[in-house]
Write a structure and sequence with these properties.
The complex is a heterodimer of chains A (508) and B (397).
Chain A (H helix, E strand, L loop, with lengths): L4 E10 L2 E11 L4 E5 L6 H9 L7 E7 L2 E2 L5 H6 L2 E4 L11 H5 L6 E2 L2 E2 L1 H15 L14 H13 L5 E5 L7 H16 L3 E5 L3 H7 L2 E6 L2 E7 L7 H9 L17 E11 L7 E11 L3 E5 L6 H8 L6 E9 L2 E2 L5 H6 L2 E4 L3 H5 L6 H6 L7 E2 L2 E2 L1 H14 L16 H14 L4 E5 L7 H16 L3 E5 L3 H7 L2 E6 L2 E7 L5 H12 L1
Parallel strand pairs in A: 3-10, 3-11, 6-9, 9-10, 15-22, 15-23, 18-21, 21-22
Antiparallel strand pairs in A: 1-2, 1-4, 4-5, 7-8, 11-12, 13-14, 13-16, 16-17, 19-20, 23-24
Helix pairs in contact in A: 4-5, 13-14
Chain B lengths: L11 H11 L1 H20 L7 H26 L7 H18 L4 H24 L5 H20 L9 H8 L13 H27 L7 H23 L6 H19 L1 H11 L1 H6 L4 H27 L10 H11 L11 H21 L3 H24 L1
Helix pairs in contact in B: 2-15, 3-10, 3-13, 3-14, 3-15, 4-5, 4-6, 4-13, 5-6, 5-13, 7-13, 8-9, 10-11, 11-13, 14-15, 14-16
Classes of the chains: A alpha/beta (508), B mainly alpha (397).
Chain lengths: 508, 397
């Protein structure tokens, strides 16, 4: 069959550095085509070339769409042809309604006067198509992230989409929302809409993709046809990283000691809906040198728990006792929590973890400026040395520690956040989704680092939505659901099925 | 460590280019100030840099620069303060009432004025930091309130003159122990001393950076920059010394400039203010007490606005209800011309100072040339826009 989209020999360079080098991609009509690759492999750049963000003379090569060569000069032109991108960071206006968002910039209007009756009717049809049961008048800010994603897709459908591009659509969705989204993609496919799916989650790709193109270092490595059954994950990973990935998790010899950190009867209420209990009298403990996982679905209250412990950064009316080595400790401000040896590595590194416009060095020392200053005066030389030391230890790839963190890839940004907290020298390190949005190679590096920290005798609490990661790394796993711990497994006895089962049983 | 140290220094010329590019902003600002000064020096047939005019230039801009130091911190922290002009006028009025109507000695009066300034800053800072009202609104309210209070305090009249001792704050010059009638030697020597100290300090910083393997400014550039600075400082003090010597207010201003430059670039407080403006949430989660920091930024601004109010009142020798009108605009413009970012987290003290001088030199030069106040405003507005446009353009490139 003639491909609906064909990109041939696409090359693009930034300041003499090749971001794309002779990339080929062919998508057949009604196909779900996955594009995978490590961060920095060139996936986003390729999509920007396709959608006209980088117009013609800025790249070389040929783009054929619907049988004709195209040279899009901007997103408006590519959208007019039915190519629509949904970015990882959703482009919805939170304080506008679903209907207003769907028709933003494309309002059904006559002489500038909008026909709202039509807009709402059309919105209702579109929402039905994507399986979202909400009123068109609902404000987007009142929707969860999963539903917002569906609104984005409805918006795309309103524009007669022929090729839908989804960039990491399930990165911030929980399992059931992800499944719903994948089902929706299969439904769109049945209607003949082609789809390019960029994702790090290989299990999802195995479920829905008809073909997989693997990019590495700006080149097409291979295109795998999945007609005769899904490709094996090992095969894909091998193509992505260009080496055998014998183990996805580093070997660990755990030396678990005495209990270091404990929470007793910890209760947290929602900051706005103050009568809603988000964490309900929870008990947990971490021992020296132990990696303890907290599994659970999105909305189980895991991040809320961690942030409430870390200087009451979330919630109201927080009660309960935090104990360090058996002694109650005051963790009511971030400073006090840090002084007692607690560090929290956020799940949202861009908005909560880093000062993006600042340099690597300045971010590294921010949580422990006392360590590089005397009488409040910073020794820049020492700061430089500290930052460089962590850069070496964590193998952060950058041009130098005076580089701004905004220019780093996700994995390297995460390393800077980790460096920041390691410099504060914590005894208990709370990691919240430490590998979210990070490519396979960098993940392994982060896992190795975490394992090393545990070997040094630090206690680690690891919150993660990726169950294999918890199973691969932890000594013990708590399962959290709706603000409570509903199960606890030693890692040896745990399995994905058991964890899911615990959640499902508790939800009933 | 071995692999992290820069073992392979690029060729000198290439490093120089790299360094220039990275610090283009600062050098560019300085060069444009010099260019503007040269332009007006030529256009005014040398009037601009005459000792008398230079002294006036310093006196005229001192209060703007003093406030720009505080404003820079406020802007870097991600806020704005529109009330400084009104606070400035209000404090001038307060000083007049205390010293003229109640005949207080100038020392307690000055202290009370500075305290009141701090209290005003604290009040506004409390609303901004703890009550979470946008600073634009809080200080817009403050602008109206203190403009009104200044009027009320003065009953709509001008009050003056001030005691002689107080006037010295603005119109006084440092004493000359050498009794030089042609050239105030003390002033010149002080200038030379400061220039030397600055060079030595710069050298020490550079060696410390080198010691830790940091990338340093290439030697030629370092030498050129520091010698230009030193020569300029000495030349400036020589020029001023050939008139009446260094004005008292110049000493205050210079001390504050050095102090604030040090605070912002070298201390933990300064670093935390940048982090607060760069990403408040990340700063808070890194253990920075963001609310307290924002609060003190406003307290500091209040004290500096009060000081500027005193300097201005002393210079005019009366307190008028119109004092301080529109100062906030010059102060804010100075910060933005100097490269501060309206969204916070970016900006330098020396940038703001240079920005204030750019405005000051233009005011002064255009006045000498006889450009009307109408077109002066137009030109200043366009310069502000142009400076920020150049910034944005460079950033996007």
């Amino acid at each position: 069959m003639e491909p609906i989209l064909e990109m041939r020999g696409i090359s693009k360079s930034f300041h003499g550095v090749n971001a794309l080098d002779d990339v080929n991609l062919a998508v057949r009509p009604g196909e779900i085509h996955a594009v995978v690759g490590e961060n920095g492999a060139g996936k986003s750049t390729l999509m920007k070339v396709l959608s006209g963000v980088y117009p013609y003379p800025e790249y070389s090569g040929e783009i054929r769409f619907m049988g004709r060569e195209r040279r899009f000069r901007g997103i408006a032109e590519s959208e007019a042809q039915g190519i629509i991108i949904i970015h990882q960071e959703l482009a919805l206006v939170p304080l506008l309604s679903i209907a207003e968002n769907i028709f933003l910039g494309n309002e059904p209007a006559k002489y500038g006067v909008i026909d709202w009756t039509f807009a709402h009717r059309r919105t209702r049809e579109l929402l039905q198509k994507v399986g979202l049961k909400e009123s068109p008048a609902t404000l987007v800010t009142d929707l969860g992230i999963g539903k917002q994603q569906l609104v984005e897709i409805a918006k795309a459908l309103s524009k007669e989409v022929k090729l839908l591009i989804l960039d990491e659509p399930t990165a911030s969705l929980n399992e059931s929302d992800s499944d719903a989204l994948l089902q929706l993609l299969l439904g769109l496919k049945a209607q003949g809409i082609a789809c390019i799916l960029i994702s790090h989650k290989l299990s999802e790709i195995a479920k829905v993709a008809d073909a997989i193109t693997v990019l590495r270092d700006g080149s097409t490595i291979t295109t795998i046809d999945c007609k005769d059954g899904p490709a094996s994950e090992d095969l894909i990973i091998k193509a992505m990283v260009g080496r055998e990935m014998a183990d996805r998790y580093p070997p660990r010899t755990s030396k678990v000691g005495d209990t270091v950190f404990e929470l007793r009867d910890w209760r947290v209420f929602h900051p706005v809906h103050t009568d809603r209990e988000v964490v309900k009298g929870l008990n947990l403990s971490v021992k020296r040198g132990e990696i303890v996982g907290i599994a659970g679905l999105m909305g189980a209250g895991r991040t809320e728990l961690a942030m409430s412990v870390f200087g009451r950064s979330y919630g109201r009316r927080i009660t309960g006792t935090a104990l360090m080595n058996g002694q109650p400790v005051d963790v009511s401000t971030v400073r006090r929590a840090v002084d007692h040896g607690i560090a929290y590595v956020t799940e949202d590194r861009k908005s909560l973890g880093l000062v993006l416009a600042d340099t690597i060095a300045r971010n590294t020392t921010l949580s422990h400026l006392d360590g590089v200053s005397r009488h409040g005066v910073i020794d820049e030389g020492r700061e430089f040395a500290v930052a460089n030391d962590f850069r070496g230890k964590l193998a952060t790839r950058c041009s130098g520690v005076h580089q701004q963190v905004v220019n780093l890839s996700g994995g390297n940004q995460q390393k800077v956040v980790l460096a920041k907290w390691l410099f504060a020298n914590p005894t208990v390190l709370i990691l919240d989704e430490p590998t979210r949005g990070i490519d396979v190679g960098a993940k392994y590096e982060i896992y190795s680092l975490v394992a090393r920290l545990a070997e040094e005798g630090r206690s680690i609490l690891m919150i993660s939505s990726e169950m294999p990661e918890l199973l691969g790394m932890c000594d013990r796993i708590y399962v959290m659901n709706q603000g409570e711990i509903v199960a606890e497994f030693p890692a040896a006895e745990a399995s994905q099925e058991k964890i899911m089962w615990a959640i499902v049983k508790a939800s009933q | 460590m071995e692999q992290t140290v820069l073992t392979d220094p690029a060729p000198v010329s290439q490093r120089m280019g790299h360094f220039l590019k990275q610090n283009l902003r600062e050098y560019g600002m300085l060069l444009s100030l010099v260019a503007i000064m040269v332009f007006f020096q030529i256009m005014t047939d040398g009037t601009l840099l005459q000792p008398l005019n230079l002294t006036n230039l310093v006196l005229q801009n001192s209060y703007i620069i003093i406030m720009a130091l505080g404003m820079l911190l406020v802007i870097v922290a991600g806020y704005i303060d529109l009330s400084v002009g009104s606070v400035c006028g209000f404090i001038g009025a307060l000083a007049a009432v205390l010293m003229v109507n109640y005949e207080w000695h100038f020392v307690p009066a000055t202290l009370v004025c500075l305290l009141v300034g701090g209290a005003i800053g604290a009040a506004q800072g409390w609303f901004v930091a703890y009550f979470k009202i946008p600073s634009f609104i809080v200080t817009l309210a403050g602008m109206l309130v203190f403009k009104g209070l200044a009027l009320a305090l003065l009953n709509g009249q001008s009050v003056g003159p001030f005691p002689d001792t107080f006037q010295k704050l603005s119109s006084g010059f440092i004493p000359d122990w050498f009794d030089g009638s042609e050239l105030r030697l003390t002033s010149l020597l002080l200038g030379v001393l400061v220039a030397l100290t600055m060079v030595v300090m710069a050298w020490r910083t550079r060696s410390n950076q080198q010691l830790h393997g940091m990338e340093v400014e290439p030697m030629t550039l370092f030498a050129a920059r520091n010698s230009v600075f030193a020569v300029l400082l000495v030349a400036l003090s020589w020029l001023l010394a050939s008139y009446k010597g260094l004005p008292n207010v110049l000493i205050i201003m210079f001390a504050l400039m050095v102090a604030y430059d040090f605070i912002t670039s070298r201390t933990t407080i300064g670093r935390r203010i940048y982090a607060l403006g760069g990403n408040e949430k990340a700063a808070r989660l890194s253990g920075v007490r963001t609310e307290r920091l924002a609060f003190y930024t406003f307290v500091n601004m209040g004290v500096l606005a009060a000081l500027a109010g005193l300097v201005f009142a002393a210079r005019l020798n009366t307190a008028t209800p119109k004092a301080g009108l529109g100062f906030e605009l010059d102060v804010i413009a100075a910060c933005f011309i100097g490269g501060a970012s309206a969204s916070g987290g970016v900006g330098k003290v020396m940038g703001a100072v240079i920005g204030a001088f750019v405005m000051g030199v233009m005011n002064n030069g255009m006045s000498i040339l006889g450009v009307g106040i109408d077109y002066q405003q137009v030109i200043k507005g366009l310069v502000l826009l142009a400076a920020v446009s150049v910034d944005v353009y460079n950033k996007n490139k």
